[in-house]
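Protocol step 6 of 9: fold each sequence in the batch and record its structure tokens directly after the sequence line. For illustration, a two-sequence batch is reproduced in full.

Sequence one:
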Amino acid sequence: MDTNATETRLFAYGTLTVPRVAHLVLERFPDTTAATLEGYQRVRIAGVPYPTIVRCDGSSVEGLLLHGIGRADWQRLDQFEDDVFYQRQAVCIVSRGQPVQALAYVSDRDALPPGSGGVWDRRWLESAGFDEWLDRLKNNGV
């Protein structure tokens, strides 16, 4: 694995696929390509509106590959992502029909709060609740 190249790419699968969120966190919206991560499932985290991914044979997660992620970006991303639920891990995704190494924020299913699991509803991204959540992020200086 080319560690340097891997560390410049993020596989995003939830709120960071929304340009307004990525711009708020990274202060820009990086170049992206569509991507799929095999062997994982996007799930709901109890008590919060955003998803995580966990290992799950036979499943896959559609998302975006964010390119050109630098050291300062990773610092902002680590602050944005809740380390209680997430660990940054190297993953192999498929983008433009080719395998690509990237980093993703991944959870251990057993470490999630009780009541977590099940399919995360992407429609939340178009709801008033999403706008309220985004306003709270802005007010907290994310």
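Sequence two, same batch, same settings:
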Amino acid sequence: MGKKYYDENGKEVSLKQRGGCFKWVGIGFVGILAAGIIATALEVNDGSSPESPNEEVTANESIQETNVFGIGDTITTKNFEITINGKEILSEVSDSTGYLKYSADGVYLVLDVSYKNISDKMETLDNSSFQITSGDSKYSPSSLLANDGDIFHDRLNPGIDKTGKIFFDIPENVATSENLTLKISSSIFSDSGNATIDLN
């Protein structure tokens, strides 16, 4: 004869009834365990977790302040010292002989530039590294190859310093505006470095 079980009131309890009680306790335990696992997974995958130190350093390194220079300031880059000595507006320019003349479609804004190679090897300074901006408009220089002073693919050995000119054929109202900025940036022809010059 099988063993009988009784509750606290002395009433006989069948094995089926006892098994049902244990079953619900087991289900409850499994449910609590599953809820804990899900909560842990959500915490690990939460996008609000702090950034790693490496990510913070990278973000800080990407923030760079740009110094704005003026006419007469000497700008020192990796390979050159560059100074914009002054500017003038001309409707026509010529070579040193006076025979070859260039007439502008607008006017020529001519920049007088001093530059020196401060690196330890030959470097090239080219007018393609210079660009004038006025508002949202950008203006590239003209290459007047017959003009003796035109800075065009000029190769300098270390320690050599020179003075030359950069010519911009631009509308007269732009040339005379008070919103002119010169941007210097490296190009495929010249590793000049980067700088911003206020031309006003």
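Proceed to step 7 once all outputs are recorded. Observation for sequence two: The two ends are 112 Å apart (CA to CA).
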